[in-house]
Amino acid sequence: MKTKQKIDTVARDLSDEVHEANFIGAKMKSERRYAALGRDYADPDKLRETAGKIKQHTLEHLDQYLEQAEASFTRNGAKVHFAFDETAARQKVLDIMNEKGCKSMVKSKSMLTEEIHLLDFLEKSGKEVVETDLGEFILQIDGDHPSHIVTPIVHKNRRGIAKSFEREGLGEYNDDPETITRRARAHLRQKYLDADVGLTGANFVSAESGRIAIVTNEGNARFCMAANKVHIAMVGIEKIVPTDRDLALFLNLIGRSGTGQQLTVYNQFIGGPKRPEQPHGPEEMHIIFVDNRRTEVLASDCREILRCIRCGACLNVCPIYRQSGGHAYRSVYPGPVGAVLSPLLAGNRFPQLADLPKASSLCGACNEVCPVNIPIPDLLLRLRDKAKREGASEAMKGTPKLGMWATLCSQPSMWKTALTMGHTMNYIPTQLVPHPSAQSWQGTRKLPKFQGGDFRKWFKNRKKK
Amino acid sequence: MSSDREKIFSAIRSALAPLPERAAKPDWDNKLPVSRPAGDFDTLEAQLADKLAFASSRYYNDSQKLAELLLSEDSAFGYCDPELAPLFDKLEGITFETEYDESKIDEYRFGITKATAAVAESGTLMFTDRDTSARLGALAPWIHVAVVKKQDIVATVGEAISKFGDDPSIIFATGPSKTADVEGILIEGVHGPGIQVAFVV
Ligand code: SF4
């Protein structure tokens, strides 16, 4: 199949194994999501709409809420930091570690740290960093990247993982998922005990109380705040919600939307260092609010995407994601959310990712499942428009020139004349049409015979039943 | 040069300035996110027991039965919050320490600590720092037994949240630690407990 679009190329070249892993993984989570929301709520859409409005409201008053959050965390005894871009964000983490004489870090899953390439940076600065989420740990030992924002190794199978464990000296080859998990448990346990710093992300930040909420299934974020003395939370400024009360709505939605769980196993609410009487846990909490172009997105006409709570539901339901997998999006955020967010967060590299908004059939499924009701298809259209206006070459690749077509469609007489030639279509092999999309279409399907006839005439004379 | 803080705030303000109006905060009822119960239950405790099972946590109210579980899971030795020790110190074959010794992290097969509340609608156990005698005791052992008082069972997630107070660290646990990272296959007991018990008194 001939194709010029990068995402199509990746989808075409995926091995059957990886394709199947992506497809089944995504489909399974979608089905669980439908089951959970339908079982538990008479009108799940009401929840989605309300959650979307709360986040939109927060974003449109972000200066106030961020200020309030800063004051609340400070009141709770946490240290608040701000980082405008990725360089500042990475440096902040290193500075905190150096100031406290810390050498090693255990971290839980955070897409933001992927965004700013924190791991590489800290390792190059001589720090030991260990990913503790099982999936992220496997990615780390493989030097690989997540292909899904919730289940980062959906593209891998047990045989590959077993080989990696064997290579890393984590026991002889064994591809039983339970054995793999137990070995990781034993290996990481010592890391938790030895580490000086625990770093986490945050799924939500309550401005009123100065608490972050973190959701995990494995309990690794808990462990990142048990044996060590310093906790660093790295948070995008868009994660804020006004109050603790709002968390009841969001937590009920995020588990069901992402994995079909009523609640994710662990929901943690951290608002400062441990109590003095508590023997375990960090004596210091640092929270770093990171912008890294989020304010640019806020200034754009796609600001709704900042409502995203990273549940992954839009990836799971997306026919393009299911076929292509996450790596095809060449960026930290894949799937429908990534097709909007990644080009926006790319700054002046926008043209290089400007093809992503085209990786959608605009079927609308992403909007329908989104727990914060983001109109993703509308945003994709806005970005397609932006790409066109800016003449982003990546966006034009593989797109047929529509000039002739447009002229044809706007001139009734030309249109009619053209139609009389329709029958010739039955005799010209479509492979010969010098057009990539026509050719790839023809690669897998057959065009029905041109029947001719006049639709308007038929419509006027048809008998109403 | 302005600080990162100032840069961020001024970028937010200039991003929002052109908006003709700002989205209002929606009104919503506390009942909105409350899930439908899975059946008719006479008491919150009965609903909790049902939901605990649904979340693959275990429900116990009899210490003898709990001892049987511990023994069957090869977990005769563990850690227990000193205040809870009187509830469990007469169980045959079960021994524990009430002072958490970090060097025994892998020897403690069970940990018994207090739960501040339990949520009937979701089978969730809530732990605050104030009521947790040792974070590692609640997290590291294979079996975690959370002791919850009947009067501390609340109906909804929202009610549990309203009890946060000023505690710096609160955990909701809905089921045992688990993952489905490897081929979507569910495995319990990744980093935290493989068996989560609610012991209602
Ligand atoms: S855009 Fe919506 S559906 Fe997609 S990850 Fe974000 S919150 Fe979930």
UniProtKB/TrEMBL annotation, chain A:
GO MF annotation list: 4 iron, 4 sulfur cluster binding; metal ion binding
Protein name, per record: Iron-sulfur cluster-binding protein
SUPFAM superfamilies in UniProt: alpha-helical ferredoxin, NagB/RpiA/CoA transferase-like
UniProt KW keywords: 4Fe-4S, Electron transport, Iron, Iron-sulfur, Metal-binding, Repeat, Transport
Highest rank taxon of the organism: Bacteria
Organismal lineage: Bacteria, Pseudomonadati, Verrucomicrobiota, Opitutia, Puniceicoccales
Single GO biological process annotation from the record: lactate metabolic process
Domain 4Fe-4S ferredoxin-type: 296-319
Organism annotation: Pelagicoccus albus
Transmembrane segments: none
Automatic annotation (TrEMBL), chain B:
Ranges for domain LUD: 98-194
InterPro entries (alphabetical): FTHF_cligase-like_sf, LUD_dom, NagB/RpiA_transferase-like
Gene3D superfamilies to which the protein is assigned, alphabetical: NagB/RpiA/CoA transferase-like (3.40.50.10420)
Domain of life where this protein originates: Bacteria
Protein name per its UniProtKB record: LUD domain-containing protein
Organism: Pelagicoccus albus
Origin organism lineage: Bacteria, Pseudomonadati, Verrucomicrobiota, Opitutia, Puniceicoccales
